[in-house]
Amino acid sequence: MDTIASLFSFITTPVSWVIVQFHKVYGAIFGADTGWAWGLSIVSLVILIRICLIPLFVKQIKATRAMQTLQPEMKKIQERYKNDKQRQSEEMMKLYKESGTNPLSSCLPILAQSPFFFALYHVLNGIATGKTIGVINDTLLASARKAHIVGAPLAAKFTDGSGKVAQLGASLTDVRVVTAVMIVLMSASQFYTQRQLMTKNVDTTVKTPFMQQQKMLMYVFPVMFAVFGINFPVGVLVYWLTTNVWTMGQQMYVIHNNPTPGSKAQAAYLERLHKHVTHHGKIRRRSEKAIVKAIVAKGRDRNEFERKFINGLTKAGLAAQPDGTVVKSEVTAVAAAEDGTTVTGASVPKRQQPKRQSKAQRQSGGTRPAGGSEPTTSSPSLEKADEPQDAKPAGAAKKATQQPGSGTRSRAQSGQRKGPQRPKSPSKK
């Protein structure tokens, strides 16, 4: 441990100084020797470190998004070398190198806060062994050794014996119960964070070696925390539990507002966004505009959830623009009027289907307008009724007698022959 402590000695003094400054604030409120003062000092240290790591977290998100743009190429590699896993891995690594992406970018926040973790461990170990370290002098050392968090001393461990725990003014049962509960919470929070990432925020259409690594880490990390947690002081368990809770909340925020394309989280996000846009008719947030802009730019490469979102906007009379905004779609229909003018938009009259005429109207040749008024054209039968009977030519009477049979003739021409039919002549061989 001395070798590791010496490697991180450059950061031990700043970490101890930050803890002391927070202890002054909380000591004035809760008392200098209380566990609340020292425990909240450690929690505040975690929050300060994670705030400083936000730029690195943003860089991690950008790297993750860059990985997502390679999904089509990954699919092609998987299909091309589906029977050769080694060649598939080599082509994947070659693709990562050419695009400048790193599949292990999600480990950057953990690696960045590792020096702070070891520095805090060294500080608390010094308190447990009664050694001053950094800016913690003898007075602060005595105060820290008196501090108890739910009955467990700040520097106590799960593996400590009853004699050492008695020197810190506590019972072995209290120390082991508190440390066991904190280890379980620490492992459970880590497992839930990783599981949430794998089940909700991963594009399930592409299977990559990186996904397999993440799935393995989902089970490995909690076991590691459970094994090594029994050797951590209570103060370090407070630090690690706080940073796990922060990571879990930070990831929930990202999944809710900026999900991975093709994941279940994106389907839920686009459904919420569709309801919001159809209700208000516009997009307000800059992050929402960026997501809509990326969806429009994909064109035919959109996934199932993105196509459903665009189709939903179209049905609601809206259209997504290339800049990420949403406007009302103006589908114009042009119709030529009788006077030669054009009518656009909603003022275009609907096309009316002509009403079906009765048999008498079809035989007489007259038509009725849509309103049901008198015939617009005079009936030939009425005009011919005024003429004398002997004025009609003989051919007209013959046609009149044949008129009722015209329907039978027309039906016969349509393929349905009536009456007796002549049998077919036998074929000649």
Describe this structure in a few short sentences.
63% of the residues lie in helices and 3% in strands. With 429 residues, it is mostly helical.
Features:
two-stranded antiparallel sheet, mainly alpha, 429 residues, 19 helices
Helices and strands in order, then pairings?
Blueprint: H1 2-7, H2 9-30, H3 35-52, H4 54-69, H5 71-80, H6 85-99, H7 108-129, H8 138-146, E1 148-149, E2 152-153, H9 162-167, H10 172-200, H11 209-229, H12 234-257, H13 264-280, H14 286-298, H15 304-315, E3 318-320, E4 326-328, E5 335-336, E6 342-343, H16 359-364, H17 380-385, H18 394-402, H19 406-413
Antiparallel strand pairs: 1-2, 3-4, 5-6
Q: How would you explain this protein's 3D organization?
A:
With 429 residues, the protein is mainly alpha-helical. Helix content is 63%, strand content 3%. The chain is built from 19 helices and six strands. The strands form three sheets. The protein has a two-stranded antiparallel sheet with strand order 1-2. Strand 3 and strand 4 form a beta hairpin. Helix 3 (35-52) packs across helix 12, helix 7 (108-129) runs antiparallel to helix 12 and helix 13 (264-280) packs parallel to helix 15 (304-315). The longest helix is centred in the middle third of the chain and has 29 residues, at 172-200.
pLDDT below 50 for ≥5 consecutive residues: which ranges? 331-350, 369-415
Number of strands: 6
Report on the biggest sheet. 2 strands, antiparallel
- Which class of secondary structure composition applies to the elements? mainly alpha
Strand content: under 5%
What does the radius of gyration come to?
42 Å
Compute the average pLDDT. Answer: 75
